[in-house]
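Exam revision sheet. Question 4 asks you to relate a sequence to its structure. Input first:
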Amino acid sequence: MNNVALVVGRESFIGTKIVERLTLNGRDVISLVADSAKSARVIPWNRSGFISTITALREMQRLYGFPTDVFIVFGRKREEIFPQESASLIDEVLDYDLKALVYLTQELYKRAGEQNKNTAIYFIADNVEDSKRPLSSTATAGFRTYAKTLMHGNPSIYLSGYELIGSDEEGFVEYVLKGVDERLEKRANSWMIYPKPSLFGLKR
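Answer key, C-alpha cells:
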C-alpha cells in the first residue's frame, strides 16, 4: 500500500499535530502549504488558482505517487471585527477557504478515481465557530455543508468527516488518527463529532 499522506491546512494547530503524528508513524507526509517545516515535504500551491491546484497535484504525484490518505484541515483563525472586515479579508476568506476547497476536492476526487481508488479523503473541521468571527463561521459552515453533500452523493472513494467541539485538540487528533487506522466502513460518508455527545446532551 502507498505510504504517502497529503495534509492540507497544516498551518493550523491540528494540521501541524496530524503531520507530526503521521511522520512519527513512518508515513511519507506531503503538504501543499508552503512553509519551512522539516517534518513534511512541501509543494507550493496558490490556493485561489485552479491551474495552481492541478500543477501542485501533478507535481506531488510525479515525485511521491498518489496519496492513500488525504487530510483537508479547515480552521485557520483570523482577527475579525464585524462589521469592519476589509474587502481584502473577505476576498481572502472566499479564496483561501471556500474556492480552494472546491478546486482541491474536485481535482483530488477525479484523480483518486483514476489513479488510486483506495484513497481516503478526511475532512477535518477545527473548532473555529465564534460569534466574534462571522466570516470564519460562515466559511466553516460552507466547508461542513460541502463535505457532507459530497458524502451523500454515493462517492466512489472513501470519504469521512471529523469535527471538534470544544478545546481538546490533542484528544481530537488522537480520535481522528484512530479512525484513519481503522477505516471502518460504517464511518464511510459519516460526519463524526468529538467529543461524542452523551445521552443527556453533555460532552463525555
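Marking note for examiners. The domain at 4-194 is CATH 3.40.50.720 (Rossmann fold).
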